[in-house]
Specification:
Number of domains: 2
Oligomer: single chain
Largest sheet: 5 strands, parallel
CATH architecture of the largest domain: 3-Layer(bba) Sandwich
Structural class: alpha/beta
Radius of gyration: 22 Å
Distance between the termini: 52 Å
Shape: globular
Length: 414
Amino acid sequence: MKKIVILGGGFGGIRCALDCAKKLRGKAKVTLIDRNAYHSFTPALYEIASAYQPDDDPFALELRRAVAVPYKDIFKGKNIDFIQAEISSVDIRVSHIVLAGGGKLDFDYAVFALGAQAADFDIPGVYDYAYQFKTTDDAVALHNKLETSFRDAVQGRMPLPIKFLIIGAGFTGIELAAELMMCARKLSRRHGFNRRAFSAVLFEAGPEILPTVKEVERKKIMARLTDLGVVVMTNSAVENVLSDSVKLKTGQTVAGTAVVWTAGVQANRLLETVHGLPVTDKGKIMVDENLRVQNSDKLFALGDCVEFVDPKTQKSIPGLAYHAIDQGKITASNITAVIQNRSSHAYKPHVNSWAVPIGGKFVLVQISSSLWVSGFLGWLIRLWIDVRYFLSILPLKKALALFKKDLVLFVKND
């Protein structure tokens, strides 16, 4: 029986594990390794950071449960072994993985699905002073900062306005800034402040936000951000970060209450330690059209740790959840094909669809290259995208229960 080991339980890793188990039932042992006991639904992290919580929840347990999907629920009855552990090293020459604590795991096929981590682009102070925004803990920490800032302002320990400085005006930064404004309105009313008690500033190094989207879509997004009160500063590359300010390369210093970093990611640093693994100068794994690691017949890779250039656009595929899911499907199909001596399938990315929530029940969704919708209809479509994903990894009852929990929790800002 072949041993398939998947490193990482993100969107692509989970899809690959589920599909491998289904396609190779009885012919392969599928194991997934992750440091956490749960899969993080990262598209809702901005909701965690900005959730309006009138009731005390000092450990943010309800917030954490809203985006944490236990692997035991996902893999129950699926012939998938789950190991919660840190990965210490991977030796591709002898095909084994060393876990923290000394355990070893052999494999016939390994899938690198380790995701990414924050990249500071060598800007001083990013790791030291800025709130990161990659994990549930990051989102909870930011949520707590928002709540405590308002409480301190009420008690006279913090001057108004409270100002969050968000570096990076990509999808993540835009989602976060918009929803923070929605939550801040609620908090302002609760504490007797006016709408000017809070502001969010988005910094973009380039001349415009989201350079890959169409101009009509960009204008719609900018109009929504402006309506919410988000200040967007373009041509504002950051030179230095402190706990309460950022210094721009123009020489200007912008002061605030907190600095949030959403500007970029890099491949998981574990990859740098894998001897013989072909990586780019950015530390990402080099793969062929079938998502097989170059010059290997037993290694595959997907998601944020992969450098995959779309042959149509000649641009790298962005790190979005639906790309990782598609790659997970293709990888499982190709591993199955190798085991069954069939032809592999090339990965053909679909880059015409995306959705960006912009505060409350307002989402801009690009359905195809020529069709997009925004506002409440876009919000309904985004809800359907979420529930469809939950249904793809969970039993019906658990999927609907999670969706309901998230809906009730996150609409409090709207």
